[in-house]
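Per reviewer request, we include the raw input and output of the structure prediction for the construct analysed in the revised manuscript.
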Amino acid sequence: MDDAGVTVIVVLHRALIEDKHDESSPAAVVVVSADAAGDTTSNGNFLGYANMLSGKGLLRRVVVDECHLVITLSDWRPKLALLKNLRLLPCPIVLLTATLPPVREGELATSMLLPCATYIRASTVWPNTQYYVSWCERGKAQETALAMCRRQQQLLLHRGEKGVVYCRSKQQCEELAEALRCACYHASDIERVERLKQWLLDGGLIVATSALGTGVDFPGIMYILHVGMPWSMIDYAQESGRGGRAGERVDAVVLVEKGEVERTIKQKSSDLDVQAIGMFIISSGCRRGLMSGYLDGRRVECNDLETAGCDRCGEGVRGWQDEQMEANAEWQQVQEVLGYITYCNANTTSLSTFYFMSYQPDLEALSPEDRIYEARKLRSSVHHLSVQYELLKHENEGLKEALQHKKKHRKKGKALDLQQRQEYHGGSVFWSPRKLREARAREAVRERDETEEKLQKARSKKQREEARLQRQDELEERRVERQRLKEMRELERAEKAAERARQKEERDAAKAIQLPQKGKRRASAATSSNNKRQKRVEAARAGAQVQEEPPAPPSKLTSRGRNVNLPSKYR
């Protein structure tokens, strides 16, 4: 910034305030939180300070960093809606963001009162980022993520690189960090700054929420894992964009449970960002093309770039499959070795992955030649352990077979049921070949029936479990449908109430416009006939002029409705 003056930077996350202070000169730049930037009610508010700078001719511009958060976080941060008050300042306003879809430009312009803003766009495609999606069974996301992270933790520490694991909740974040023995980061942690600095020094994995997903710029991030479906396409683009800042190759993996995406899309059918990230996960097309088509309005697929593709395109498919098979095989070997050593030797029950991690030499402090020597020595140790493991495994299998054989001899045999004829009453049993064959056939039928019964029970149990899960899904769908109908009814009632209020206001306004008509009403009103004496005189005059009517003939019906034939003299 060559011109003398002050530039105000408005940031919307706590993590960005210190970052901007470190990057900028405090004499020319003022960094302010978004919660205080638009406030006009508190004493000594920022707008008053900015107006003072403007009056002195020092205020050059106001820059709002990560402005897309104004429309994505306004539901639970109402103070972000006050940023529109920055339009009161007599200076240019610059809005910066890397993830504003073209379909949401109007929403941002309305929120910031900038109807005639000029948009300058660049491509959001990260050519060195490979996008993968991995699936797991329902309820197995955390267990699967733990297995994936343990392998990546070793690789990252060995290479001196970093990785970020994003979780949807603080509880899941803390549980994964504790299991991996690594740092965690979320907005409620008072030690988050120290843990972040330690992670930047040590490398490896850090488990975080979306609080570490926007605006931060750290080098050396090579692996990004999302446990569960990301909140939206904008959030995923921001969080996956934390890696590869220096052009390194980055693996961005999304781990989701089966059925999770479909449920989320159905629940949030009106949210464009959620629909976009859902299609990114479950669609069969190029993932990079889907992301760029939504964020930039122009599709750029993996085949258009000179890099390895996503797990839907070209080399990315084979690379991802090979990596998954290699990871599964390695982790299965490690689990078998650890489990068997712990089982065979009661004195080594404390042996675990953490022991091997602590036994591993500090490769960062070694020269390249020493690293090669240590790697060869470690490979030799692992080979020796694998040989010992195979020997112990065969020995254990032999012991199991001997024990099983001994148990068979101890167990009393069950005599075959040789059915005798009823006329036979002796105490001896005749083992004829025919009876033996019949008894063995009956025993085989009995064993087969028992096996079929067990299989039938297992199938019934599986069917009941599937029916229970299906009922849960149906109940959830019904609950969502009831909630939607309830919201529609409330909206209709509100609209009807507003319509009634409007009609009442119109009637009241029409009555207020009319002039008083009291004099005309008195002149045109009919003569009142409240005088009792006048009423009696008029009634007497009317009686004199009208002859009295003859009495009505008696009724010909009894009280019960029967006909009565009166004699002629009484008629």
